[in-house]
């Protein structure tokens, strides 16, 4: 069963908003054979121009579902988020189930009979979308994050993988949509 952590920024989350989010996002549970005990992280932010931004992240064992939407109407934005998440589930259902079957595990996603045949056709046509056409190998050089950003910019890439000189772990710097930079640090589990 999904549990919800709903946070509002510049907005008080009322019972009506909470119930609407839980009802809409909770419908994703029908796609699972055994509904995972997962936490759905929902962040709702409003801006001065009354626009809202909704972010939903649901980390699962085999895949992380994530969607983000900006809309003038909060409830319409939640509906759009739900549609995006459903598309993600349908897209990854076949792949994740196949991997689970190959490992001998129970299939993660349930088979849902859709009324809309276009969606079913879409799913099968997207099944082979991820074909790796090129592979590269390179050595990770020890450097700090500032040096990695400079190297990324010199190469003209959107991301750069490096060994963090201080932590000796693998890290990634990337260019964000707003033109600023982000850092992803890896941890061992």
From TrEMBL:
<dbReference type="Pfam" id="PF16321">
    <property type="entry name" value="Ribosom_S30AE_C"/>
</dbReference>
<dbReference type="GO" id="GO:0043024">
    <property type="term" value="F:ribosomal small subunit binding"/>
</dbReference>
<dbReference type="GO" id="GO:0022627">
    <property type="term" value="C:cytosolic small ribosomal subunit"/>
</dbReference>
<feature type="domain" description="Sigma 54 modulation/S30EA ribosomal protein C-terminal">
    <location>
        <begin position="129"/>
        <end position="183"/>
    </location>
</feature>
<dbReference type="InterPro" id="IPR034694">
    <property type="entry name" value="HPF_long/plastid"/>
</dbReference>
<dbReference type="Pfam" id="PF02482">
    <property type="entry name" value="Ribosomal_S30AE"/>
</dbReference>
<dbReference type="InterPro" id="IPR038416">
    <property type="entry name" value="Ribosom_S30AE_C_sf"/>
</dbReference>
<dbReference type="GO" id="GO:0045900">
    <property type="term" value="P:negative regulation of translational elongation"/>
</dbReference>
<comment type="subunit">
    <text>Interacts with 100S ribosomes.</text>
</comment>
<keyword id="KW-0810">Translation regulation</keyword>
<dbReference type="InterPro" id="IPR032528">
    <property type="entry name" value="Ribosom_S30AE_C"/>
</dbReference>
<dbReference type="InterPro" id="IPR003489">
    <property type="entry name" value="RHF/RaiA"/>
</dbReference>
<keyword id="KW-0963">Cytoplasm</keyword>
<dbReference type="InterPro" id="IPR050574">
    <property type="entry name" value="HPF/YfiA_ribosome-assoc"/>
</dbReference>
<protein>
    <recommendedName>
        <fullName>Ribosome hibernation promoting factor</fullName>
    </recommendedName>
</protein>
<dbReference type="InterPro" id="IPR036567">
    <property type="entry name" value="RHF-like"/>
</dbReference>
<comment type="function">
    <text>Required for dimerization of active 70S ribosomes into 100S ribosomes in stationary phase; 100S ribosomes are translationally inactive and sometimes present during exponential growth.</text>
</comment>
<comment type="similarity">
    <text>Belongs to the HPF/YfiA ribosome-associated protein family. Long HPF subfamily.</text>
</comment>
């Amino acid at each position: 069963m999904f549990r919800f952590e709903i946070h509002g920024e510049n907005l008080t989350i009322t019972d009506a908003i909470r119930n609407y989010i839980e009802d809409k996002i909770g419908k994703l549970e029908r796609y699972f054979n055994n509904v995972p005990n997962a936490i759905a992280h929902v962040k709702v932010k409003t801006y001065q121009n009354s626009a809202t931004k909704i972010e939903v992240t649901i980390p699962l064992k085999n895949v992380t579902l994530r969607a983000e939407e900006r809309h003038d109407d909060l409830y319409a934005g939640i509906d759009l988020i739900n549609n995006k998440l459903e598309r993600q589930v349908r897209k990854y259902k076949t792949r994740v189930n196949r991997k689970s079957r190959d490992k001998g595990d129970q299939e993660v996603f349930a088979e849902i009979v859709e009324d809309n045949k276009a969606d079913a056709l879409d799913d099968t046509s997207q099944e082979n979308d991820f074909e790796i056409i090129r592979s590269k190998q390179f050595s990770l050089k020890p450097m700090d994050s500032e040096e990695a950003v400079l190297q990324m910019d010199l190469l003209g890439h959107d991301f750069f993988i490096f060994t963090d000189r201080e932590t000796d772990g693998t890290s990634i710097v990337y260019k964000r949509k707003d033109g600023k930079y982000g850092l992803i640090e890896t941890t061992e589990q």
